[in-house]
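Practice problem: UbiH/UbiF family hydroxylase
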Amino acid sequence: MTENIYDIAVVGAGAVGLSAALAFARDGYRTVLIGGLDVRRDGRTVALLNGSVRFLEALGVWPAVASVAAPLETMRIIDDTGSLFRPPPAGFRAGEIGLDAFGWNIENVALVEKLAEAARASESLTLAPEFATGFAADDAGASIMLADGAVIRAGLVVAADGRNSRLRQIAGISTQTWSYPQSAVTVILAHDREHWEASTEFHTRHGPFTLVPLPGRRSSLVWVTSKDDAERLSTLDDAALALAIERQAQSHLGAMRIDGPRGLVPMSGLSVNRYWSRNLALVGEAAHVFPPIGAQGLNLGFRDVAALRDAVVDGGDAGHSPGSDETLTRYQRGRDLDVRLRTAAVDGLNRTLLTGMIPTDFLRGAGLLALSNIGPLRRIVMREGVLPRVGVPRLMQGVSSV
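Answer key — structure tokens:
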């Protein structure tokens, strides 16, 4: 690298970090992306909701991403808890709210690869494939120390370095963490029957069992269950695991075959007391961690990036630098309520499945029954889930020119 001074430095080359670097470079900021790519397959996928699709369209990468993703046109919820108040299956179709799909499902590694291709092709983005080892801020901006001894200066540092964020720790931003008595088994499956672009979520007493379509007769699975059961499932050979999955899915997609790597993910959460410190903004899992329920984690990370981009652009119009306290306070205001609401929703859903209390089962069953039978209510809930009307960053509104 011949130039070590930038407007914005993004630390972390996962999907969130890559998207942040592309977004700021797109707007003309001198941007550097720091960190090495991790493209190991781990059996995990992400369902990109409508706002994330619009965001990727604005970055110019959506056609490449869509080529290896599958649309989610229908969502089904089946109560398999054994509750006395078991409602009939509930179905939601994207066409009811004027969309072709609620979102698109893609393997995590494929998404990172497509974003990395765009980053390498960007003439206005510098790539520094070293790991950040230190961070400091002063009146002149921020400094990032790299593993090879180089130092990078930037007006704003974006910490996209994951749940164990080194930059967050150095900045002294405190966290709250929690865990659940569950783990999630993740795996890619092939199956005999068509999924017809429908995801199916079985609510069991130990957590959701969710099948989400991939291109072809393939689906991804997130099976949330007790820690002991998850450990047992993870030790099964491919044939035995495929049979266990087929039985839990009530043969919904016919015979199953393991068609990719497996993952075993402890169920946990993390939140921060603030999203920024001097010349530093947290995005993605550096700011919040969700259990793999409800497709919230990465979609919220993309919203972080789009909201930070808006705060930087608007702050610049008001005469503030990208890393100023005024700009980052604006970012905090834009993210705090959204993340808190989504955290509460995911946590609440998971805990209602675990309680086994009759009043809780009744309320959950009544809620699903109402969504199934009251069209206007169902459409309001669907729109809020994928097309929220308040506080949506501009790049997620389909406004690619601002």
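Discussion: DSSP finds eleven helices and 19 strands in the chain. Students who identified this feature from the tokens alone can consider the problem solved.
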